Amino acid sequence: MNQHISSLDISARTLDIVSEMKSLEGPLLPILHAIQAEFGHVPQEILPLIARELNLSRAEVHGVVTFYHDYRNHPAGRHVLKLCRAEACQSMGGDHLAERVKTLLGIDFHQTTLDGAVTLEPVYCLGLCSAAPSAMLDGAVHGRLDADAVDALVAEVRA
Amino acid sequence: MTVRIFVPRDAAALAVGAERVAERLASEIEARGLDATIVRNGSRGLHWLEPMIEVDTAEGRIAYGPVRPSDVAALLDAGLANGGNHPLCLGKTEDLPFLKSQTRLTFARCGIVDPLSLADYRAHDGLKGLQKAVAMAPADVVAQVTESGLRGRGGAGFPTGIKWKTVLDTADERKYIVCNADEGDSGTFADRMIMEGDPFVVIEGMAIAGLATGATKGFVYIRSEYPHAIETMTQAVGIARAAGILGASVLGSARGFDIEIRTGAGAYVCGEETALLNSLEGKRGVVRAKPPLPAHKGLFGRPTVINNVISLASVPIIMDKGAAYYRDFGMGRSRGTIPIQIAGNVRHGGLYEVAFGLTLGEIVDRIGGGTATGRPVKAVQVGGPLGAYFPPALFDTPFDYEAFAARDGLIGHAGIVVFDDSADMLKQARFAMEFCAVESCGKCTPCRIGSTRGVEVIDKVAEGIEPEQNLALLSDLCNTMKFGSLCALGGFTPYPVMSAVTHFPDDFRPAPLVEAAE
Question: Measured between CB atoms, does A64 come within 8 Å of chain B?
Fold first, then answer.
């Protein structure tokens, strides 16, 4: 992801986003979502900037960013594979599939493969509980997974 | 006449290949020069048959499923466009037993209409409720909702009309309607389905709530795990605004109401109403102590109605057909219908809307068809990660708020997750504590610390370390969490834990020691 953007560009783009969304009621989460969509993560160095623009303390902004699971402080891999770990998927063997994926990729949850191809994340429910076990790969949903299907997903992200 | 072929766009259908089926169908239609068009509808809720496609014929809609992309050519060869026969043909959709035995009030249009067609929405009784509400005094709208007996479908079961009345009676220049679409409970997907399959009914329900309470602004807080619902709701709000349903003048009246869609950021606790309000305000999703009630001081300190998606989506039909029509369904103090979500290890998973009162056994065995693996049912968890595990011995429990409470369970958001006999209930109890530890907002001690201690105590039981003392400790800890936590996360985590301990004691007995063999 856009790791090579200079910090000057990041600041300028952040200011654009903040000024665009500042007038929303309770603008912080929408701003953070927009920043993550832009840069692939929420760069630590722009938190003071956001705080200044919204008239918040840096601690408040830091507190919000770290509270929510969605915001990353560093870029993810080229692909993000989210495996559902909630009860409905457990009832259909989701735990075994998760182990299989971890072994195939050689990483644990919250880690990225060394080649930067894929980040593996747990997700607690995709609302596909009637088509369990389920996963989301880069925003696309997959249900009724079995060993063959997860092997195919892993092959896809490795390609 | 152009034939209409329906291919669902619901995420559950997409997850099993509906997009590729639609693409294949489109290219085949073009290659064959057929006079047919593809409508991307919501799901009918028969998820084991997804992707289930339908074709409009003179006799009604004919269903086919589950359809793989490779089936498309053969289906067209068999005369799909005219409802032709094929091994995948399921017959008339409306005659399918799973659908025929339902009472669809809230989900009346879901799976039938094009979710983003206002013309479809109007043609299927849409906006009738709002039209009536526009002509009524706010207090009369509130009275009608109260009389219907509608209770919050998010899980707490609080009477919706009472909530609305409190906001109506609280004077302020600005009030809000907040739609809680942070449906994080495993086994639940009704909110997602209605947002993806009939978004206008949610918008209509919110607009009615606005007119009834004097609120002019609404927010829909949708969890980020639901990108398809976010997309559909965002488009639907734009369409509704352009059509004058939302905006400065609701349906040409002198009253205004508008809606903004907001995205959550992956915190389960934000499904708790006060945490959700903090999140909307741009804060950490930490639970607030009550009082003050959100109805008095809610979003930005203003009077706020905060209702679940399904509660709001049930309001239009109550306004259209009357309070008595809705109230006549159901049992005891649980009035109307409830969209039951049947999930997990079950043959016929999906959404089943029915009046309150069916027994749990009827739902799991008769409607759900037992487990998908064919093994015996060991347990069902009703109400998400904070709901109790019930054994088949309790299958005579009727689906009713009070009946479940009487057996130390809860209906919650009406999701049912089925487990076969391979489930380890100690593991499930541990997961409940672990989940609470991961998702706790941290504000109150019983939840923040109790959940972590709970995991440790269960681990000790699993290792056979003083199991009896540790189970007693666990029970004591659960008692503290239940009565000492600020919200349902810490307060209800004891339900899955203690129900597992109570109903499945064998799983908590120490495994025979093997190390003694050396």
Answer: yes
Does residue B128 sit in the same domain as residue B194? Answer: yes
Q: Does A30 touch chain B (CB under 8 A)?
A: yes
**pTM (two decimals):** 0.96
CB within 8 Å: A130 and B341: yes
Question: Is A126 at the interface with chain B, CB within 8 A?
Answer: yes
Band of pLDDT at residue A111, cut at 50, 70 and 90? very high
The candidate with the shortest Cα–Cα distance to A132, out of B411, B16, B386, B10, is B16
C-alpha span between A42 and B122 (Å, rounded): 43
Query: CATH code at B233?
Result: 3.40.50.11540
Nearest-CA distance from A85 to chain B in Å? 9
**Which residue from A minimizes the CA distance to B442?**
A67
Shortest alpha-carbon distance between residue B33 and chain A (Å): 31
Residue whose C-alpha is closest to residue B216's, from B201, B225, B206, B227: B206
Assess if residue B198 is contained within a domain.
yes
pLDDT tens per residue, range B218-276 = 999 999 999 999 999 999 999 999 999 999 999 999 999 999 999 999 999 999 999 99
Residue of chain B whose Cα is closest to the Cα of A139: B227
Whole-number pLDDT of residue B518? 45
B223 to chain A: closest CA residue: A126
Burial (CB count <10 Å: 0-12, 13-18, 19+), residue A44: exposed
- Domain final residue pick, B420, B453, B471: B420
Q: Which of B13, B15, B16 has the alpha carbon at shortest distance from B54? A: B13
CA distance B241 to chain A (A): 18
CB-CB neighbours of A58 under 10 Å: 13
**Minimum-distance CB partner of A143 among B16, B224, B341:** B16
User: Which residues on chain A are in Cβ contact (under 8 Å) with B224?
Assistant: 33, 70
CATH number of the domain at B414, please: 3.10.20.600
Domain boundaries, chain A: 7-67, 79-158
The 10s digit of each residue's pLDDT in B71-115 is: 999 999 999 999 999 999 999 999 999 999 999 999 999 999 999
Class (C level, CATH) for A79-158: alpha beta
Nearest to A128 among B11, B267, B415 (CB): B11
Query: B357 and B289, same structural domain?
Result: no
**Contact yes or no for A69 and B265 at CB 8 A:** yes
ipTM, interface predicted TM-score of the complex:
0.96
Q: Which of B14, B183, B343 sits opposite A130 (nearest CB)?
A: B343
- Residues B390, B486 within the same domain: no
pLDDT tens digits along B124-154? 999 999 999 999 999 999 999 999 999 999 9
Is residue B517 predicted with pLDDT exceeding 50? no
Q: Could you give the number of structural domains in chain B?
A: 4
What does the alpha-carbon distance between residue A95 and residue A85 come to, in Å, rounded to a whole number? 7
Structure tokens belonging to residue B452: 């972590």
Does residue B322 fall inside a structural domain?
A: yes
Q: Which of B420, B441, B457 is the last residue of a domain?
A: B420
In this complex, do B345 and A33 lie within 8 Å of one another by their Cβ atoms? no
- Which residue range forms the structural domain that includes residue B251? 118-327
Strands in A111-112's sheet, in edge-to-edge order, are A111-112, A118-123, A79-84, A135-137, A140-142
